[in-house]
Design goal:
alpha+beta; 2 domains; four-stranded antiparallel β-sheet; two-stranded parallel sheet; 14 helices; globular; binds iron/sulfur cluster
Length: 324
């Protein structure tokens, strides 16, 4: 049996069925596009500024030949969930970095047993992971810039493994967006029209440290992240739910206690929210977003003694916006 089939069989045996392969190489075809975004200030602060680092997958392993892209579905049944105040769907379970890492480590162990060298990544390199997933044939990139897979739509996390084993690459899929523009119309800030400005993406704005007051009215219940462009996508309609139990949402992330988050202390944050997929961003960002939503939506919550000057600044700005 060839190595590719063996690796695929192993992935299937641990419940992963959306796996593809592409060459480890320099993605020169992306350089012009990334330079354009940089020159036109369309990059977000979370993006690596050095374009060479973003396009050269060979930098990550001497003798690396193949990148394996793996999709991890995270959507569970969601008819019952709260709609007015919400965490983005991807944030609700156990920190996906840890969950995905555990799977990738297993796959690496298997590849090493076949004699290959490996290195795995989950949000831990500067490479264009959606483009790599597209090149690996596991989905197409929609107009909303998400990777859209056949079985799970765009509700997937991505992980990559670089190996020195050479296997045949998969064939990229053609875009299926056609004339559809539902995500572009639905986006609350127009971030995916024209040149796609990452700085206008509400998911990014909810994660930024410094948020301009002009965005406060657009939070509209978003506590962290934004699913609008995914929710309207027809390819997210008839999809298969996740089989990864470790990614199942916590109850407290589905039925939000706004009062608790508005007044949250460090120990409650660490005990509960830190272990979720948005915990890495820290207490202040989530507390700030909760206060923005509580005040902008006129929720009946009592904001008690605010100690942090960072939170206090937002609170005062909100009072100013609301002319209270
Ligand atoms: Fe493509 Fe339509 Fe989905 Fe947007 S909503 S990603 S245009 S199919």
């Amino acid at each position: 049996m060839d190595c590719k089939r063996e690796i695929l069989n192993y992935c299937h045996s641990i419940g992963l069925d959306t796996v593809g392969f592409t060459k480890c190489r320099v993605y020169t075809e992306l350089e012009g596009y990334l330079c354009f975004r940089k020159e036109n200030l369309l990059e977000s602060e979370f993006e690596e500024k050095d374009i060479k680092k973003r396009i050269n997958s060979c930098e990550y392993m001497d003798g690396g030949k193949t990148i394996i892209s793996v999709a991890f579905p995270y959507l569970f049944k969601k008819d019952h969930i709260q709609k007015d105040i919400k965490f983005s769907l991807y944030t609700r379970g156990k920190d996906y970095h840890k969950v995905v890492e555990a799977y990738l480590k297993k796959i690496c162990g298997y590849i090493e047993s076949l004699g290959g060298k490996t290195r795995y990544f989950v949000d831990s390199n500067f490479l264009p992971e959606r483009y790599i997933a597209f090149q690996s044939g596991i989905g197409f990139i929609g107009k909303n810039n998400m990777l859209i897979t056949k079985r799970y739509g765009s509700y997937v996390f991505l992980g990559e493994i670089i190996t020195d084993i050479e296997v045949e690459s998969d064939i990229p899929l053609k875009s299926k967006c056609g004339n559809c523009s539902l995500c572009q119309t639905a986006c609350p800030t127009g971030a995916i029209c024209g040149n796609r400005d990452s700085n206008k993406c509400m998911s990014y704005i909810t994660q930024k440290k410094n948020v301009d007051s002009k965005w406060f009215p657009i939070f509209q219940g978003r506590l962290f992240g934004c699913d609008t462009c995914q929710e309207v996508c027809p390819y997210n309609g008839d999809i298969i739910y996740s089989n990864i139990e470790d990614l199942r949402p916590f109850n407290f992330m589905e039925r939000v206690d706004l009062n608790e988050i508005v007044n949250i202390d460090k120990s409650t944050f660490i005990e509960k929210y830190y272990n979720t997929s948005c915990g890495w961003r820290g207490k202040n960002i989530i507390q700030r977003n909760a206060i923005i939503n509580a005040l902008m939506l006129g929720k009946n919550v009592e904001i008690k003694n605010i100690k942090s000057s960072y939170i206090k600044d937002y609170y005062n700005r909100l009072l100013h916006v609301l002319k209270l």
